[in-house]
Amino acid sequence: MIRTASAVWRGGLKDGTGALSTQSGVFQAQPYSFQTRFGDAKGTNPEELIAAAHAGCFSMALSLFLNNAGLTPQQIDTQATLTLSAEGGGFTITAVHLDVSARVPGADEAKFMAAANGAKQNCPVSKVLNAKITMDAKLLA
Question: In a 3-state reduction of DSSP, which class is residue 48?
Fold first, then answer.
């Protein structure tokens, strides 16, 4: 499987503007700029998209790990909080924190946490990030 996304950038770093698009067409020419990354301007940014990708990837991986344990989740909610830090004259994604809550009929805390930790370590987005990945996971009744 191969997926593509593209970026167009016009102008200098601080005064330029760009647009991000995906192969599927669901995300087309979405604006991004220095201000959407480092300020409060409306638009997206690469780090926000990585956080969204990580939340989505992890949620699907958790479903897989739960299924492998004989459990079927009713719902998994994941928020990924990405930290972008200034380092060595540039910026680095240093951490992602996953805040997860899930409704899983028949699950006990031990099985749920084993599945959550397996998903955190093995989802493809976790594997590609060179960052500290932490997690708070809650099994909902």
Answer: helix
Q: Are 123 and 99 in contact (CB under 8 A)?
A: no
Query: What span, in angstroms and rounded, lies between the C-alpha atoms of 120 and 83?
Result: 17
Structure confidence by residue, pLDDT tens digits, 10-39: 999 999 999 999 999 999 999 999 999 998
45, 59, 81, 82, 117 from 134: Cα distances, Å: 22, 15, 10, 10, 10
String of DSSP letters for 5-24: EEEEEES-TTT-EEEEEETT
Share of the chain above pLDDT 70, in %: 100
Closest CA to 81 of 96, 92, 94: 96
Mean pLDDT, residues 4-8 taken together = 96
Tokens of 112: 């749920």
Query: 87: pLDDT confidence band, cut at 50, 70 and 90?
Result: confident
Element (H, E) at 107: none
Angle between helices 109-122 and 46-68 (to 10 degrees): 130
